[in-house]
Design goal:
Elements (H helix, E strand, L loop, with lengths): L12 H18 L4 H13 L4 H4 E4 L2 H10 L4 E3 L2 H6 L9 E3 L5 H7 L4 H12 L3 E4 L3 H13 L6 E4 L7 H9 L5 E4 L6 H18 L2
Parallel strand pairs: 2-3, 2-4, 4-5, 5-6
Antiparallel strand pairs: 1-6
Helix pairs in contact: 1-2, 2-10, 4-10, 7-8, 8-9
Length: about 210
């Protein structure tokens, strides 16, 4: 895979060279046989931590689900603007949107976090979409509530919230739902892993349609 590897996020020859060299180094550590290996590689490079490969979990064929979502131009919903800024905007036709900010008046009136009202406001749009959560466990828990109730069914969920309150539990709950997902085990996660996983699926899609 490395000999023909290209990265749509690398826009100059120097950037492409760095990307390929990084991939070769990481491939020697964690393998290079599957698309899941490619996602692990990118997440390791994004964090500078080879042990990240060991905590990634792939459920119900998430890469195939992500590629199908991109093929039909499904929107990509992300939790915060930092994730939105990091997701590659070329190589696909999917809009990248943040869900925070939707339903804020409900959150203010009820004194609750902004995530549940946002999901409720967008639930008609979330089915068939890609949902990327890199930060708030409450966002993933709210999403799990709606998926378990049958209200929504995203095409793919990348759920890697970070922290010590409900982060591990929210991801464990995600893995118990029959929806394609990428998650991390334990308390670790965050924006770099969320963006890296999403961008690698975009990269795989772009390479197959170039």
């Amino acid at each position: 895979m490395m000999e023909e590897y290209t990265d749509i996020g690398a826009t100059t020859p120097e950037a492409m060279d760095i990307s390929r060299r990084s991939r070769r180094l990481i491939a020697e550590l964690i393998g290079d046989k599957t698309f899941e290996d490619s996602i692990k590689q990118r997440c390791v490079i994004a964090t500078g931590d080879p042990s990240v490969a060991e905590i990634l979990r792939f459920m119900h064929h998430p890469v195939e689900a992500g590629l199908h979502a991109l093929k039909k131009g499904a929107p990509i919903y992300v939790d915060i603007r930092m994730v939105e800024a990091g997701v590659v905007k070329k190589g696909h036709n999917s809009d990248v949107r943040t869900f925070i900010g939707k339903g804020d008046s409900m959150a203010s009136n009820q004194g609750i976090t902004r995530t549940r009202p946002a999901f409720l406001a967008l639930q008609e749009e979330l089915s068939g979409s890609v949902v990327v959560i890199g930060n708030a466990p409450s966002a993933l828990l709210s999403l799990c509530d709606l998926m378990e109730s049958g209200s929504i069914r995203p095409e793919l969920v990348i759920g890697v919230p970070v922290g010590f309150v409900n982060a591990a539990e929210s991801k464990e709950r995600l893995r118990e739902i029959d929806v394609p997902s990428i998650s991390t085990f334990g308390t670790r996660g965050g924006t770099p892993i969320a963006v890296a996983a999403c961008n690698e699926i975009i990269n795989i899609y772009a390479r197959s349609h170039s």
